[in-house]
Specification:
- The complex is a heterodimer of chains A (348) and B (480).
- By secondary structure, chain A is α+β, with helices and mostly antiparallel strands.
- Chain A has 2 domains: 132 residues, Box (Proliferating Cell Nuclear Antigen), CATH 3.70.10; 165 residues, Proliferating Cell Nuclear Antigen, CATH 3.70.10.10.
- Helix content of chain A is 27%, strand content 34%.
- In chain A, a hairpin with a 5-residue loop joins strand 12 and strand 13.
- Chain A starts with a strand and ends with a strand.
- Among the domains of chain B are: 154 residues, DNA Polymerase III, subunit A, domain 2 (DNA Polymerase III, Chain A, domain 2); 124 residues, Proliferating Cell Nuclear Antigen (Box).
- Chain B is built from 15 helices and 20 strands.
- In chain B, strand 18 and strand 19 form a beta hairpin.
- In chain B, 37% of the residues are buried.
- The chains are: A alpha+beta (348), B alpha+beta (480).
- At the A-B interface, helix 1, strand 6, helix 3, strand 8 and helix 4 of A face strand 11, helix 4, helix 5, strand 14 and strand 18 of B.
- Strand 9 of chain A pairs antiparallel with strand 14 of chain B, so a sheet runs across the interface.
- Chain A: One of its GO terms (cellular component) is chromosome, telomeric repeat region.
Chain lengths: 348, 480
């Protein structure tokens, strides 16, 4: 079993892990010849099924295993992975390999940073002004080399403990099946949506749970999200004390691709979203979601991708996140071609 | 009677707060020692009678880490007066006291100058006086904040501090490095690791942060460990990151260390040191000899000399070339055992066993002749490094807006009175008119509390607040 790769886009990978780790602490990672999958199935909350093409985050990718398609399944703790990637933000290069350290399997992240001049010359100026006669180093001697600022290499190695999973243990895990959505809509600015959602949740908590204290033990009113097929999205929350909502208009309801729909053109005619559209702008598809969970979901906004929300009325909400920035030179046609990250918010 | 009296400028308040915050990471109590410098012991007493210092120290509970900040009287303070109780008595030459650190910290907290806030709220100066009396007389640590005058009276315990011993002469390994570089190193270390191994070979130095559990792996497990391992393999996933940073020795200012010597200290202590050293751009100097002997880390900044003495962990990997004189120690299979630092509190030995002072008498002569007689010397120049940092926000911070909101956190933001803001409101109103009444009000409220208290606790800080003018219940009423 061998796995080794260079990280091609550290920023994107780091933002992805940040978004994922707010939704769950452990991910099932499936690596094979074709793509990289991150799956998070928390006990409660939102499931993530992310499929990334290899070249969106990696390059010089080598994988080898006895399984079909050279598949390797790993169980990976997300916070340490994210932490490790933080070290790589200003790196010259970063690579990952699967190895063993003292008998424990680890993902070893090797980060190389070249510094032109180090910090120890930077303080020369400050210290010359420092006339402290008591300091040990009132007359500091500096190495000549320190001022020449040669190309110095700092290598940081971050070992993330992992578990290698057998093919059997992941066989039974399947993506949730959700009925065809009633409405699909491109979400507005996620940071705006997040700010307003968080505000609503806080207001609701403050007006229901006493003075808003100890709210974790009290049932928090759910946010109500609704979309129509005429470009509107409605966010609202209601408690005994208040009832607030925000409506976005002029959003896009993307056309469905007949090839993706069961029974093609005919299926599209019978599709729930077609019916909702026909019912006019006052026909909404509504889901209710825990505000705290929703806030975590919206943290995928940091990826800067396009997000399409699919509403299955009173049943489920699925977000399709399309990575936009995996290659700076990419155009829109590439974006939609890349497999989306899907977030399933199952509703109780 | 007042034994000690000193005045702090705004900058000094900030620095004192930084030092206290660092000391707080080692111990709950901070020992304060006011003394004439040790030059008093030699015959130039008359010349140097104004040469004073205040030493803040903390020793952790396992006595494996010691932290000290020496505030140089005439540099750090704008005014510093120390009048020993019995000037003729040699024994009472020093004044010692021990204070609950959180009490002090909360006094200075929030006093740090924040350039983004209005100037009105900044403290102009801070007078501290220590009153001590014989027998039944009250011993108090009195802090007066000028702006709106606020007076804090803290109780203290008269205990001689414990000083860790460090024998500089036997420390054959030394290096120095920029505090900023060390700060960058510390940022790579994930949370939860325990040890930091410093090792050098072939011009490369490695800093490894790890936890002993990972290092021992499958090898040296006890049956208990093995069985617990069997039923919970996912425990592995909870292991902290194992981080190695390998750098060129050229990153260091000086580097003279024995090849292939593993020296292991606690990551926590290291991070505490770096967090303080990294505030300013300075050179951190390390001195050590061999495993199981202490390591000394020193650096200095305007008027503050910082020293850390950290115990190093006994040899665990057996690859050191140093022949340890104690054979039993080499054979020890309990690598994580850290011997406590040698420390002493006996007043007589204290003078002799004080950590080697990082200052020499010679330069102080020049210092003395040029010493300004102006009661309030100009404050130390602002540190450009700190300002430049605030100009360029690190990129990572920007990303935080995406983090999920923590709704469980206590929030004063909404529908509640921000009691912290009340203080500012007072400031902005007629400060001079209120000053007298506030001060009086404070005295009334805090006096009875203190007299009833023997122990030093957080409640001994009578923070000055005006009561909200509207009841919380009334506020809620709007929505109910």
């Amino acid at each position: 079993m061998r796995f080794k790769t260079s990280v091609r886009n550290i920023q994107t990978f780091s933002k992805l892990t940040a978004s994922l780790s707010s939704l769950g602490k452990v991910a099932w990672v499936r690596l094979d010849d074709d793509n990289v999958r991150f799956t998070i199935i928390p006990e409660t909350g939102t499931q993530v099924w992310a499929v990334l093409s290899i070249d969106s985050i990696f390059e010089d990718y080598t994988i080898q295993s006895a399984a079909q398609n050279n598949t390797i399944n790993l169980e990976l703790p997300l916070p340490p992975l994210h932490r490790a990637l933080k070290s790589a933000i200003n790196a010259t290069s970063a690579s990952i390999r699967l190895t063993k350290k003292d008998g424990v399997p680890v993902l070893s992240l090797t980060i190389i940073t070249n510094t032109i001049s180090s910090g120890n010359t930077a303080n020369g100026f400050l210290n010359s002004a420092n006339t402290d006669p008591f300091g040990d180093n009132a007359f500091r001697e500096e190495n000549l080399d320190a001022n020449m600022g040669g190309d110095r290499e700092t290598i940081v190695t971050q070992n993330i403990p992992i578990r290698v999973l057998t093919a059997d243990s992941v066989e039974g895990i399947h993506e949730p099946r959700v009925r065809e959505p009633d409405a699909h809509i491109v979400l507005p600015s996620l940071i705006q949506l997040k700010a307003i959602s968080d505000r609503f949740t806080k207001l609701a908590m403050a007006t229901t749970a006493g003075a808003g204290r100890g709210a974790s033990t009290v049932a928090v009113p759910k946010l109500e999200l609704a979309a129509n097929m005429h470009g509107s999205l409605k966010l609202s929350i209601s408690t005994d004390a208040l009832n607030i909502s925000s409506v976005w208009t002029g959003l896009t309801n993307p056309e469905l691709d007949p090839r993706q729909v069961e029974d093609g053109e005919d299926g599209l005619e019978d599709h729930p979203s077609t019916k909702l559209k026909a019912a006019g702008p006052d026909a909404w598809s509504t889901v209710r979601i825990d505000g705290r969970d929703w806030g975590k979901v919206l943290s995928v906004g940091r990826l800067g991708g396009r997000v399409i929300a699919c509403f299955a009325d009173e049943h489920a909400l699925i977000l399709y996140v399309y990575l936009s920035n995996y290659d700076d030179g990419s155009d829109d046609s590439v974006l939609t071609a890349s497999p989306p990250t899907k977030l399933y918010s199952q509703l109780s | 009677m007042t034994i000690l009296n000193f005045t702090l400028t705004t900058e000094a308040i900030g620095k004192l707060h930084d030092a206290l915050a660092c000391l707080g990471k080692f111990s709950e109590a901070v020992s304060i020692e006011a003394s004439h410098d040790k030059v008093c012991d030699i015959k130039y007493v008359a010349t140097f009678s104004n040469f004073l210092q205040l030493v803040l120290t903390a020793l952790n509970s396992s006595k494996s880490a010691y932290c000290s900040f020496t505030l140089v009287g005439n540099k750090f303070f704008s005014k510093y007066l120390y009048s020993p109780v019995r000037p003729r008595s040699q024994v009472k030459e020093k004044f010692n006291c021990k204070i609950y650190n959180k009490a002090l910290l909360s006094v200075f907290k929030g006093r740090v100058v924040d350039p983004t806030r209005e100037k009105d709220t900044a403290v102009e100066k801070c007078d501290v006086s220590v009153e001590d009396g014989e027998g039944t007389a009250k011993s108090r640590f009195v802090i007066k904040m000028a702006c709106v005058l606020k007076t804090y009276r803290l109780t203290f315990e008269s205990v001689a501090p414990m000083h860790a011993l460090f024998v500089k002469e036997s420390a054959n390994n030394n290096w120095s490095i920029s505090s900023r570089t060390l700060k960058e190193f510390a940022e790579h270390f994930g949370p939860g690791t325990e040890q930091l191994d410093i090792y050098s070979e072939d011009g490369r130095v490695s800093f490894t942060s790890y936890t002993e559990k990972i290092m021992s792996g499958n090898g040296r497990q006890t049956p208990v460990e093995r069985s617990s391992h069997a039923n919970g393999d996912s425990e592995i996933l909870k292991q902290p990151l194992h981080t190695t940073i390998a750098v060129d020795t050229l990153e260091f200012g000086e580097f003279a260390v024995e090849e292939k010597l593993h020296i292991i200290i606690s990551v926590k202590d290291f991070k505490a040191m770096v967090a303080h050293a990294g505030i300013t751009n300075t050179m951190v100097k390390a001195l050590y000899s061999r495993p199981s002997s202490p390591m000394q880390l020193t650096y200095s900044d305007e008027g503050v000399v910082s020293e850390f003495i950290l115990m190093t962990i006994g040899e665990s990997r057996g690859s050191s070339a140093t022949p340890a004189p104690n054979a039993a120690r080499v054979d020890s299979k309990r690598p994580a055992a850290r011997q406590p630092l040698e420390a002493t509190s006996s007043p007589k030995i204290t003078a002799a066993s004080m950590p080697p002072p990082p200052m020499s008498a010679a330069p102080s002569i020049t210092r003395e002749t040029t010493r300004s007689r102006v009661p309030r010397p100009s404050p130390p120049p602002p540190q450009p490094s700190i300002q430049s940092q605030s100009l360029f926000l690190p990129e990572a911070d920007d990303d935080q807006k995406w983090d999920p909101q923590n709704f469980d956190e206590e929030e004063d933001e909404m529908l509640l009175w921000d009691t912290g803001g009340e203080k500012d409101a007072v400031t902005m109103n007629a400060a001079s008119r209120l000053q007298a009444s506030v001060n009086q009000n404070q005295n009334n409220s805090s006096q009875p509390r203190l007299s009833a208290q023997d122990d030093v606790g957080p409640s001994t800080v009578p923070t000055q607040r005006l009561a909200p003018t509207q009841r919380l219940s009334e506020v809620k009423g709007i929505f109910d």
